[in-house]
Amino acid sequence: MHISKRLERFPENIFSSLAKEVKKVEEKSGRKAFDLSVGSPDFPPSGIYIEKLKEYISEPKSHLYPGFGATPTFSDGLIDWYKKRFNVALSKEELFPLLGAKDGVAHIPMVLADEGDEILVPNPGYPAFTGPALMMGCVIVPYSLSEENDFKLSLSEIEKKITSKTRMVWVNFPSNPTGQVASLSEIEPLVALCKRKNIWLIYDNAYAEMTYDGYVAPSILQIPGAKDIAVEIGSFSKMYSFAGYRMGWIVGNAQVIAALAKVKSQLDSGMSRPLQQLAGYAFSHPDMAWHEKMITSYIERKNILLRSIQTIGLSAKDPKGALYLWARIPESASDSYSFAQELLQKKHIVVTPGIAFGSNGERFVRISFCSDITRIADYL
Length: 380
Description:
By secondary structure, the protein is α/β, with parallel strands linked by helices. It folds into 2 domains: 131 residues, Aspartate Aminotransferase, domain 1; 238 residues, 3-Layer(aba) Sandwich (Aspartate Aminotransferase, domain 2). Helix content is 38%, strand content 14%. The chain has 12 helices and 12 strands. The termini are far apart.
């Protein structure tokens, strides 16, 4: 029986393949592995939001199809939050709910590029910027975020890599996997470049509310004229610990929003009514006391990990954003995959090999600090 040749264009998701390897090790040893690979926040959601969700699920029409696009509650809440948080004005035509941020990440290439078109992605960068684009027959062109440049953008390098076939560029700060952050002044020249070259700029801002040491993440839409060429993707997974509910959003250029809505009209039936109600309520009623406790918890975990990983030869800078340590492996290790495998086999600790994020990750591993680390001493 025929299987599509499309499957040969892209690899299996790194976390899917890692899970299979972990399962084998656990079955063979009879010992549960200590998983620091996936960025799945285990800090419990606000009790206020959980009670509201129960209320919304109990509403008479909660079981019906939600319809395509945003409900008024979702739209009003997101518009209100963007105005208060970023002083950015949005219209209802400039926003759309997503089934998790990854939903938007995966489908944007289908909207903005054709087979053979080029897409610029950060190296190292979120693997989902690459896999779906390869599936659709696009050409991936990595741009370097190097340790020598503190994992910051190089505008001159990006400009050199833009060709007549370039359709879009992915940008992600606070960064997954490096934790590096960016200011508006650092992003503004890239907006100007994309406008000059007539290419789309897709800004993954999933970690905007996961920041430390006084850093406050901006929205790219704060830059005058950014809506002409840019959209921004956000996530409830990290911001509210709603990862399992699959909730996200995209805002910005109305043409891109409309095109994505058309694609998604064929692929899903929208975010459920209770979740859209929950989203609108959370936007309009921020539980700041809960958020501060969550951030404090992650800072404590991060600091424990920064100290603990030294015992296995790893070193990392203290990140100002996101939920990961981007840790350099020992010089004695041959590569990131081998190091991660050895750590899994010998100590039952699961980390993500840096090579999964691009060639610039070969000497690194990504370690999540949004998982429970209370037992780390038992594994090191």
